[in-house]
User: Fold these one by one.
Assistant:
Number 1:
Amino acid sequence: MTAPRTPRIPYGGDYNPEQWPEDVWDDDHRLFTRAGVDTLTVGVFTWSLTQPAPDTYDFTVLDRVLDRAAAEGRRVCLATGTAALPPWLAERHPEVNRTDFEGRRHRYGQRHNFCPSSPAYRRYARGMARRLAERYAHHPALLAWHINNEYGGACYCDLCAEAFREWLRDRHGTLDALNDAWWTTFWSHRYTDWDQIEPPSALTEHWSGPDHTAFQGITLDWFRFTTDALLGCFLAEKEVIRAHDPDTPVTTNFMGTFRPLDYHRWAPHLDFASWDSYPPLDAPPTRPALAHDLMRGLKDGAPFWLMEQTPSTTACRDVNPLRRPGELRLATFQAIAHGADAALYFQMRASRGACEKYHGAVIGHAGRDDTRVFCEVADLGAELERLGAVTLGARTPARTALVFDWDSWWALEISDGPSRLVKYPDVVHAYYRAARAAGADVDVVPQTADLTPHDVVLAPALYMVKGDLATRLEAVARRGGTVLTTFLSGRVDEHDRALRTDVPGPLAPLMGVRVDEWDARPPEFAQTVPELGAQARLVFDIVLPRGAEPVATYGTDFYAGTPAVTRNRYGAGEGWYVATALDQPGVDQVVRRILAHHDLLGPYADHPSVETATRVAPDGTRLLFLLNHAPEPAHLTAHATATDLLTGKRVDQGEPLVLDPLGVAVLQ
Ligand code: GLA
Ligand code: ZN
């Protein structure tokens, strides 16, 4: 199953009319119509209304919300509302409250606060999902199911400890296997009974926080267990929805590059992926782009939904800057360019009370339709309406893949040595950014992905190489492709045990290098890499070429003159090894050389502010998105004769093509 079929890009967002008297709803719908809003996500936090007591259900408000939406010709993404507990549930079953990393049993409060292993939570959450499905499966407004909200966090209670042990039994079979996997003879940890195993927390294996563990094996398994425990909650709800509604697509809203949950383990269970984009402050536009491509990669390149973004400002940060005029439009088209088939906001109308009352909304507290934000939202709504269905279902024809792996992320960042300062997403982003700035479309894929469509595979910081990936990477090179990997790759097996081979383990034959030693230095220290005119930091593998030729070398220290970057001929292709954390200009040069070899540099690769992305519609229509991220106009020369779908204007090949500040063109 894929995302819901719609005649245009669904436009709208989270809508909580239950917070307001009904005369306000009249204003809302009038304004929605003006803004071209056709889709509302409802019911995300309604549990204490729909079930005010254990045996009392009350759907009158939700009925009215859905009926009203239908009467207005709008569709609804209906949430099951199980992300925030009603107080009575926590009162009646205190064990539904989470126990935190420090071992403190929480009392009622906040949201995203349920213990995933609590039978009471699962029973009531499933009960709510079932009732909603029974009631609304055939409602004319229903477009999609939205289970829970932004799953995340962990619980360290006794129920979770017991569930963890069950999970471990399943995974390892015997205690001998577990002891071997976790290397428990180290520090006298050999377990002789499953009940001796404790969740890794501040009270057990950890010190100074979740990244410092005495046993990587147990902590890794705990992250996997947490992923699966929350997935179990999702599946419990999905199952009862399916029993009553076989046809409506089901999703839950993810958070992009979110470390705690391995979304690749979830992906097969979603009908379509969706996610909430709140880019970090001052992040380059390739950060949200990477997350979009990661989310698109969850369902094998199928379009995803942008389930939330703010029209103007967030509230949860210490300082919450406004989106400047034009930035919302640019961010929305960026999402569409990367595969979003819906553009939804958090939120449609601002709350009056509680912690999100200053969070940006399409409609502010005064209910006006002449604010700058409302006008920008309405203009964008009209523009998307004009664009119609042309982008829907379109795929990205990328020939470059970037391997993204949660196990590697976890294992690398919980490792003692060589450096705590290496952050997996930063390394991955540097390579992604280089490829995108050079104009290449990139599929961000799991280790298990089919790599046959790709000529270039970037696998930076691939700490844990699993299954037959090494063989498939060799196959890419053998048929003429290029594979790149870096320092901190090919280091450990699936239990985080060092491999009994030379580094980079299973990647060594393809890379033609051997690494016996690595140096790590504080961030102030920069090693020079003269051939690239670049600098390198943090970690420095000392490379012994075993067939590979040096492309660039270290400039100083006892390993001066030894390779920092190598290239190895393999079959008809190549393996590139980057032995250190090059600065961005260094990464750019390496990646551009590889892309140029495969003729994958984009037509506007020399315009640093201009992002390009391609989508090919189901009918074969090829669309090239041009996004100008600079506050000045971008002066380009059209690479082909095309029509800009947003203006209807034709540009001829070789003629000037000017993008406005923060401007967008969609060339067909
Ligand atoms: C998340 C949640 C929303 C809201 C926004 C605020 O994405 O899903 O309920 O809290 O953050 O930015
Ligand atoms: Zn628990």
Number 2:
Amino acid sequence: MAKKISYSFEFFPPNTPEGIKNLADTHRQLSVFSPAFYSVTFGAGGHTRDGTLEAVLRIKEEGFNAVPHISGISSTKAEIKTLLDIYQQHDIKHLVTLRGDVPVGQIARGEFKYASELVSFVRQETKDYFHIDVAAYPEYHPEAASAQIDIKNFKKKVDAGANSAITQFFFNADAYFRFMDECLLADIDVPIIPGIMPIYNIKQLARFASNCGAEIPRWLRMKLEDYGDDLPSLRSFGVDVISELCETLIAWDVPSLHFYTINQAGIISRIIKNLESD
Ligand code: FAD
């Protein structure tokens, strides 16, 4: 039996009645793993922004710990203040605080240039009310001027008041271990939770990886390509690869694992069952 650790699961806000029902089924299925929290991503458009709030409130109503993401790049201070007030009214005490990305074709109109500014604003407005998570990048952020500068910028978010961080996904555990060493050297001492991306299909994975700068190792890409349209075999192989990655991280004593669910429970359930049966 592997060491018992805690899990959290990330969803995106659904925008159809079927999507809402699917998300409810997904978080109910994942509840057997007693997650520390469910988080819901934040989109730059008004519709997805409202969707985050609605999804978070639905999760909370069912008695789960719901954590909204908020992003600054397309938000004004007044909008963020309103959101913070609403979350406080609903007794939500944990946020994932980001700069965010502006969707292609839209213009950033927000008042926060970097996530550190948003963290400072949340602290200024609400003191220690919220537990604040920020994003971390073991393979560095795609816009980073250099590895060293990216670590310095990460430290700015922690110094601004972040309590912990969740990483971008990665397949190479060494990248995470080296990043942790660099954080230690930079006096960054908050928990940094690995973000885990299950493998659902190669096209989607390649798109996510190219957008966020995560590397798909050549051996993994080539193996996945070999499966072609045989999704069941690709997913079984992916479950093995991700289970091994998680086992390596757990053996290293990570504080917990955060799964990017894409609003699906099946593959993640198989991975966690593997971890718990070892
Ligand atoms: P920052 O920490 O602000 O960093 C962005 C870039 O700016 C980096 O290259 C950094 O080195 C640089 N930088 C930072 N501070 C400075 C400074 N003072 N001067 C110069 N350069 C600086 N996106 C969404 O839109 N919605 C979500 O819900 C969402 N959830 C996410 C959850 C997790 C766990 C992760 C890892 C990412 C998530 N993202 C989300 C994606 C994220 O918004 C993007 O990666 C975005 O490009 C950067 O956000 P950040 O908060 O890391 O930005």
